[in-house]
Amino acid sequence: GFCTNLLLSQTPKDILAQTNNETEILCELKKEHAGVYWYRWSQERQNFEFLVFSNLLGKTAYGANVSQDKFSVHGASSRSSYSLHISHLHASDNGTYYCSVSQSSQLLLGSGTRLVDVLPLPLRTTQAPRTKKPLRHVIKSKAAGKKGACNPLVWLPLTASILVLLLSLVPTAYRLHRLRRRLWLRIHRQ
Questions:
Q1: DSSP 130
Q2: pLDDT at residue 142 in the model
């Protein structure tokens, strides 16, 4: 199972990047671990994707169809921080990235870093004179974008937070089930 934990902290929380640029996500561990896993939650595809695992010796294992040119992991000599380097950014890289460590047959997730790809603006060679009609169109589109209920950027972090919360409840429910069963067995043995 997955669960979020205070043993891992990720920075930054959000990344706005441009196409073809690169970025880096830092994962700080409160204690040493044998290695770090990196996952991506894709809102568009509605799935968790394993990207890469890196151990203390610098050995890496990549997920299926994951480009080694795009993702690389760098560990600090203290073995308490790792960074995921993402290059050649594209719209398909959008999602929430999680660092993770394995502990007691559970994967502990970091707080998550949301990557939103921002396409570069086209270069303006000449400036056309402004007219009232396009200006009104711009004002309308800005007003429409401010409606919170329809904006996917409002729902994306909320959906991801709910999913992480639900995933963190699974191990707790399993533990409660085991405790209840042990108690039932003790009562019936007496």
A1: P
A2: 43
